[in-house]
Amino acid sequence: MLVSVEHIWKYFEADIPTLEDITFSIERGDRIGLVGVNGSGKTTLLQIITDRISFDPTPGGDGAINIARGCVIGYLEQNSGMLSENTVDAEMHRPFSALEEEYREITSLGERMHSLSGDELEAASAEYSRLSAHFEANDGYLTDVKINTVLNGMGFAGIDRSRKISSLSGGERTRMALCKLLLEAPDLLILDEPTNHLDLDSTVWLEGYLADYKGAVLVVSHNRYFLDRLCTRILELEDKKIKSYKGNYSDFLRQKKADLERQEKLYEQQQQKIKELQFYIDKNRASATSAKQAKNKQHMLDRIEEEAVEKPKKPKRPPKIRLEYDITPPKEVLTVENVDVTVGEGERQKTLIESLSFELRRGEKIGIIGPNGIGKSSILKTIQGINPHSHGRINWAQNVKIAYFDQKNEQLDPRRTVIDEVHRRYPRMTDLEVRTLLGGVLLTGENVYKPVGVISGGEKTKLSFAIMMLRRGNVLILDEPTNHLDSMTCEVLEAALADFDGTMLLVSHDRYLLNKIATRILEVTRDGVKSYEGNYDSYIAAKELEKPAEPLTEPKKEQPKKQYRTREQRSSDARRKQEIKELEEQIEALESEIKTIEEEIQKPEIAADYIRMGELCQRLEEAKAELETAMEKWADM
What we know:
Number of domains: 5
Helix content: 40-55%
CATH architecture of the largest domain: 3-Layer(aba) Sandwich
CATH superfamily of the largest domain: P-loop containing nucleotide triphosphate hydrolases
Distance between the termini: 53 Å
Largest sheet: 6 strands, mixed
Number of strands: 18
Shape: globular
């Protein structure tokens, strides 16, 4: 067991607990997803485990967090302790500082040994062997390989490693902090929303890396596809308490539904029994002949009420999102031909895509995917005329009415109140009508009078969808609509988008959403876009088929060993020369193989394939060990 959390309570107000009697354990190899609605206390619990904040005294006085001796816990936070004035290269080498110091000591010792003799040489040789064995056992020779693997996998393949950390954007610093944490390889890796700043390729790479991670993983995420692919256990924080479920996120949903149905059934049966007993007691309490039986029934009723099944709590009211339109557009909704996609103005203008072409037909729901920075959001703005273009053609059909969701909520005025943002667009609506609309997306009470700039990201998203419902667009253009939303609201939004029978362009990293909604996937690259029919899983299957088959390698033919006559006159010098020649050929072959492997490891496609990378790294170690043995033999000849 790595960590055990026992009977933990936490209060942020005098008498109201945020966490109540939290108990669970983390074993070696666990892949745990921590889930719960926004504000349920997930981040608070992580901060308690990592000793950022303390827990409070418990009613029984038995609260404790026990951590196995020697267990190192790594926690992903903004910047995660990175030194802003350090270069990227320096920060990525910091987790290996002890090994690098050990290598310098090995090198220095090796140089000194040339001038030693006798007991001093023997002692130095023993220390050299000890340090070398420790260095190799801890993959000291693979430091650069590990750094390349993680940086490439996390989308930093081409980054200038002489850049200072302070020059990175907020999202880049968070990703870089995750890279550093993965390289530190703690026994327990705690990650709070690790996929927020990752594109699809990096998210898929991270899933594979964490699945093979030697330590345990505890992750908070709203990315349901990620939780499905990674987790073997789910911990849910609900109503201040925690409950454990075996399996991934989908297993958790099924088990929770079954538990709720079972609890409702038991509660109903128990209430019926209580009602029957109470009726008997009331009827027979005063009867001389039945008073004793009534008393026994009372004892039975008291026991049942003491051990009563808790009344199932009604699920929180979900928001209401319904997207409808009035006018049906023509079959060919949009044609884009050879359009350039750019950002910035004047000297700062940058072309992201030279020539973009695609078509959108009525009723299609197209998911647009591609790496961060490729221009997915810019495509949506360009086709709407928000961003200018210098060549090509964008043709929208007649009777098209667009409803646009911008992930940055730039269309909302941060100075206006929530209710005024709706009134500004639809001035004929009464306050009651607007408040009813906002109440449907769970914007209620004083929240409707708050400035848009101070409400949460999730509340801004709900406001935007309330406005979109009023817009009644027959074409939805959506840019990362599930960002900042809890699981319940995501599910409501998915259902609304699935029920919408109009046309849709959707940019999203949410593979769960793409799987459920998309009828076609457009993959964006620097050369334009490529179309794949079907949802995200269909896209993945098609990409697998596109991969070139690995060439079949013929087994190497054994070189026939040179036969020598076994005469007594055979010269020992000739034998020695032959052995030296064979060793030199072996050394040359091993050096060539090592160089080839090291070149392969530097390739981005290899670094992104952690299975192939592991195979190459293992062979690299073996080849270096064989080379060292051959060199020692050659030196002794």
